[in-house]
Amino acid sequence: MPSAPPVLFIHGLWLHATSWAPWIELFSEKGYTASAPGWPGDPDTVEEARAAPERIADHGIDDVVDHYAEIIAGLDTRPVVVGHSFGGMIAQKLLGLDLAAGAVAIDAAQIKGVLPLPLSALRSTLPVFKNPANRHRAVSLTPDQFRYAFGNTLAPEESDALYERWTIPAPGKPLFEAAAANFSPRSPAAVDTRNASRGPLLLITGGQDHTVPEAVTKATLKQYRHSDAVTELREFPDRGHSLTIDHGWRDVADASLSWLAEQGL
């Protein structure tokens, strides 16, 4: 596939960019040039990120979008962007700005205009919201908090193993920005959902996700109703927020690859 666009993987909160390693290997085997640049301030390893949370703290949504826009500017052609959780929101923003050829947004954080806020989502983010000062800090999850927010469909042993392997502190600022999005006329969580000339978008939802419940993803889909550009939804009914890193990651990756092939990307 010599004409395949490059693929950028964008992680969300609490996971390090290296958690995309199996995806990068698979996409590379399929002919893509794939990479997973971290968020601004992200160290190269999980261990370094845990040791220096201040490097990650206080980066907001616009900081992250600008960071990836700069990376894209250095490429020869527009990439496909694949994002999970807040990375899924960032992917949608980049697509809406016509900086990406297409996007896959997996259990994407809610964008401006999405109203459902299920109780499970509130509980998943409580470790950040319980202290207003966390807006300017990086916050870590405990293994139990991770199990509720990410690993609720997994055996405790698998959830704990994923926690130990991939989790890092996450900046609180994007969560506070997203929570205030519908009250802020210039919210950084706003996405150009009306762009009719953008590339195709696939939204993927895990039906058992506590952090981004399927009601949020389905409400996100409705936000695109005024655009004629391709916008599609794929559901994995039995999956939680860990669907990109747990034992079933390959099902989600294969679905993404098949969809990209259908779109000629």
Write the layout of secondary structure elements.
Layout: E1 7-10, H1 21-29, E2 34-35, H2 46-51, H3 61-73, E3 80-84, H4 86-96, E4 102-106, H5 119-129, E5 138-139, H6 143-149, H7 156-166, E6 170-171, H8 173-179, E7 201-206, H9 214-223, E8 231-236, H10 249-262
Parallel strand pairs: 1-2, 1-3, 3-4, 4-7, 7-8
Antiparallel strand pairs: 5-6
Helix pairs in contact: 5-6, 6-7
Short summary of the structure?
The protein has ten helices and eight strands. With 265 residues, it is α/β, with parallel strands linked by helices.
Q: Write down the CATH class.
A: Alpha Beta
- What CATH architecture label applies? 3-Layer(aba) Sandwich
CATH superfamily: Alpha/Beta hydrolase fold, catalytic domain
- Which class do the helix and strand fractions yield? alpha/beta
Main sheet: strands, sense, barrel: 6 strands, parallel
Order of helices and strands: EHEHHEHEHEHHEHEHEH
- How would the global form be characterised? globular
Amount of beta strand: 5-15%
What is the number of helical segments per DSSP (H or I, 4+ residues)?
Answer: 10
The value of Rg in angstroms is 17 Å
> What is the topology, as strand order, of the major beta sheet?
2-1-3-4-7-8
List keywords for this structure.
37% helix, 12% strand, six-stranded parallel sheet, two-stranded antiparallel ribbon, Rossmann fold, alpha/beta, single chain, 265 residues
Could you characterize the architecture of this molecule?
The protein is α/β, with parallel strands linked by helices and 265 residues long. It has one domain: Alpha/Beta hydrolase fold, catalytic domain (Rossmann fold, 3-Layer(aba) Sandwich). Helices cover 37% and strands 12% of the residues. The protein has a six-stranded parallel beta sheet with strand order 2-1-3-4-7-8, with helices on both faces. Strands 5-6 form a two-stranded antiparallel ribbon. β1 (7-10), α1 (21-29) and β2 (34-35) form a beta-alpha-beta unit. The N and C termini lie close together (10 Å).
